[in-house]
Structures are given as C-alpha cells and as structure tokens.
Amino acid sequence: MASFHVRSISLPKNSHPLTLAVEEQLCQLKASSSICQNLSGLQKLYECVEDFLSTEDGKCSDSSLDGSIMLLDVCSIIKDVLSQMTQSVQELQSSIRRRSNEVSEYMISRKKISKVIRKCLADLKNNKKNDTEISLLAEVEATTLAVFESILSFVSVPKQNKSLISKLTLTKRVTRNEETSEVMEVDTAVKSLTKGIEVNNVQKTLKALEMTLQDFEDGLETVFRCLIKHRVSLLNIN
After folding, report:
1. Is the distance from CB of 130 to CB of 17 less than 8 angstroms?
2. Collapsing DSSP states into helix, strand and coil, what is residue 191?
3. What does the record list as GO biological process (predicted)?
4. Residues 27-49: pLDDT tens digits?
5. What residue ranges do the domains of the chain occupy?
6. What is the separation of C-alpha 52 from the centre of its chain, rounded to a whole number of angstroms?
C-alpha cells in the first residue's frame, strides 16, 4: 500500500550492533509494501530504538524530545480519525440494513474527517525537519511520520488527497495500489446508492473497509504504546 524512501545513514564500521539493528529496521520499512506491514515494522523499530538508547551512541537532544511529543499528538489524532471513520461506516451499514440509506449523514461525516486530515497534513508539513539534520533518531522520527502520512492519505477524500499530498515530499514516497482504491470504491459506491446500485455490493465494500480500518486501529494502538515508552526513555536519559 505505501512504500517510502528512507535516507541511508552512513554509519562507522565500528558502530554498535544495536545501532546497526535500528538501521536495519529502517531499511526493512523502506521495503515494506503495506500500511499494516509498516505499522508492524514501526513496533519492531521502536523495540530496537529502546535498546539503542542504552548505548553510548544513544544520545538524546531537545529536538528528539520535542519530536516524541509531536509523534504522540499525531498518532492520537489519527487514532481518533480512524475511530470516527469506522463509526461512520458502521452507521451507514446499519442504515442500509434498515433500508433508510442515510448517505447524506455519511458524506457529512467524511467531510468533517477530511478537514481534520487536511489540518494534520499541513501541520506535518510544517513540522518536517530540515534535510541537513541527519541522525539516527531524526531518521526514526521521519520514518514514523511517513507511515502516519500514508494512513492519512488512505482515509482522505481522493480528490482532496491528490491536491494535498502532491504538495508534500511524501508524494515521491507513497505508491498507491488496490488498497488505496478501496476507500475510493466506498465513496463511489455510497454516492451510487441513490441510483439503484445493488445494496449487497455496497455492503461488501463497506465491510471490507471496516475490516481494513480495524487493522489500522489495532496496529496504531500498538505503535502508540511504543511511542509512550519511547518518550519515557528519552526523558530518563536526558
């Protein structure tokens, strides 16, 4: 679903094995091809980062501390977005079963969610670190943000998504495939409900999206806990 570029950090030949382990996880994330895989990869990455912070190389800067707070804030926002979107999908499924087909309520909810996404994407753009700052922890933060951006890209309204993401560096790093089109299929199917489209097909599409969103929520919850632990570790070594 989403692949992205990870800067290659030139590490000394005598780098600590735990430092190299973090770099290896970053490379594996680069090769990952789906958001769920990326979320799982982030969990493994932060497990390695915890070990890395116990080494002499694991120094913490004020920038890292600030970044840890920002990552937690963004992660929390995305969790709320996914929760709201899941609720909207479930409510629409329920309305279809009742034959009330409350499409307008779903579309209103989508617009509200899209506003939150646009703001979050804009904030992420403003928070991007200067490319001249190259350190292992800075790369971990940048990689985490890239995964977060890919999730926001997934759940955004397609038309708005193109115009917004094209302005971000992530455009060059995110590859869309059938999973991304899943959201587009839902939007198209929902809009077609009023045109007599087969309801069963719409329900199948909504159910598929609901399951995908649930997978994202589960993965993001695990990452959120990792970020809390990471924040505590940074404070302890500061």
Report:
1. no
2. helix
3. root development; shoot system development
4. 999 888 789 999 999 999 999 99
5. 18-23+33-127+136-156+181-237
6. 24
